[in-house]
Design brief:
The protein has 385 residues and is mainly α. It has helices spanning 46-56, 63-69, 88-102, 106-117, 124-140, 144-157, 162-178, 182-196, 201-213, 217-230, 235-247, 251-263, 270-282, 287-299, 307-322, 326-336, 344-356, 359-372, 377-384. Helix 11 (235-247) runs antiparallel to helix 12, helix 15 runs antiparallel to helix 16 and helix 17 (344-356) packs antiparallel against helix 18 (359-372). The longest helix is centred in the middle third of the chain and has 17 residues, at 124-140.
């Protein structure tokens, strides 16, 4: 009699969507990332933003750096840059705030910036610059809610040059996403894209991340697939495309993308291997393709001998057993049993051996199942007889 082994729950996809945020989302290297996948490959780096602010305030001592810092970042922007600049008196005060920020005295930088912005005679540029600094300092203080508030005020002042104005806008979108204000983040980013006319991949990838956060996975998947077609060697775009396809239950398409990347040798991390084999195991007819991926990951030392790997082996074994491939089922349960968290894999191995007529092996596996602990000891005891 063929006794059906106990099946573990199917593996979840090992990748979650999360595009690179503009560099500011890293909060200047602080730990406040709120689960978002951030990267310095994003927008203007924090160092570049500081250099730009210093150049605007006349604090840059290097002409080449100053020229580079003020070069147009968004040359196709539709916004007409305002002419307002800081008065000589306020310029010195803003320079003081910038120096506090450079010294990482963020609390005082916020206080001084607010003081400048709230002056009755402060012009739009002065307000915008002060609020921009207050937003950056608040972010470094891990107060993202205040950062969003200040960045919004900097935008509303409408006094900054285009570089600063649109960096603030992209920063605001990143912080809103970090705060899970997904609708607001999408609205901000869409405004940014419409006004800057930028075709930079990182901002489209950011949009895909926001769409995924909103549960609009079909849209996110299409966006990432389009990006991948234009950037076939960009692994970050690839993994985001895979994540969105998986979350949209389009496992076959996700598997196709990952499988092609695997053949090209582009998968080099444990999470990427797990995403591929999980995708195969979550599909109806691709479980056999998971085996070489798992074996390769183990051979390369990417997949550790742990309970998660045991679960993968058990799912392969269960699928093999259902299709009467008892040889593969026994092999996979035998690999899973020593590294599993409990004795269920040993119990399933005993059932397979029993079905194959290998009574001695079945009794040995059943005893190991009891020794390691199982939910239904009576099943193992029956196999001991």
């Amino acid at each position: 009699m063929k006794t059906v082994p106990t099946a573990p729950l199917l593996l979840l996809a090992a990748i979650t969507a999360g595009a690179a945020m503009p560099a500011f989302a890293q909060m200047s290297g602080s730990s406040s990332q709120s689960g978002q996948n951030t990267s310095s490959a994003g927008s203007e780096s924090m160092r570049a933003q500081r250099e730009r602010r210093k150049a605007e305030l006349g604090q840059s001592k290097n002409d080449d750096k100053a020229q580079a810092a003020t070069a147009p970042l968004f040359p196709n922007a539709t916004r007409q840059e305002p002419d307002a600049k800081a008065s000589s008196k306020t310029l010195k005060a803003l320079q003081g705030v910038q120096e506090l920020y450079e010294k990482q005295d963020y609390a005082n930088a916020v206080a001084k910036a607010e003081e400048i912005a709230n002056k009755a005679d402060a012009n739009p540029y002065e307000k915008g610059f002060a609020y921009q600094l207050a937003g950056s300092a608040s972010a470094d203080l891990n107060n993202e809610a205040k950062a969003a508030e200040y960045f919004q005020k900097a935008l509303d002042s409408n006094g900054l040059d285009n570089n600063s104005h649109y960096q603030v806008m992209s920063n605001l979108a990143a912080v809103q996403l970090s705060l899970e204000q997904n609708d607001a983040a999408l609205k901000t980013l869409d405004r940014f894209l419409a006004e800057t006319k930028t075709t930079d991949t990182k901002y489209q990838a950011m949009r895909g991340s926001i769409l995924a956060s909103l549960g609009r996975n079909d849209e996110a998947a299409k966006l990432y697939k389009d990006l991948l077609a234009k950037n076939p060697n960009d692994k970050r775009v690839l993994m985001n495309a895979v994540a969105s396809l998986q979350q949209a239950d389009q496992y076959d398409q996700a598997n196709a993308l990952l499988g092609e990347a695997y053949k090209k040798g582009q998968l080099t991390e444990a999470r990427e291997y797990k995403a591929l084999y999980a995708g195969y195991l979550n599909s109806d007819n691709s479980w056999k393709e998971a085996i070489p991926v798992i074996n390769d990951g183990v051979a390369k030392g990417l997949l550790p001998q742990d309970a998660e790997l045991a679960k993968a082996y058990m799912i392969v074994a269960q699928k093999a057993y259902v299709e009467d491939d008892t040889k593969t089922a026994a092999e996979m349960y035998a690999k899973a049993a020593p590294i599993a968290a409990d004795g269920e894999a040993y119990l399933n191995l005993a059932k397979v051996y029993s079905y194959q007529g290998k009574k001695a092996e079945a009794r040995e596996a059943a005893q190991k199942a009891l020794d390691k602990g199982i939910k239904k000891p009576d099943e193992a005891k029956t196999l001991l007889k």
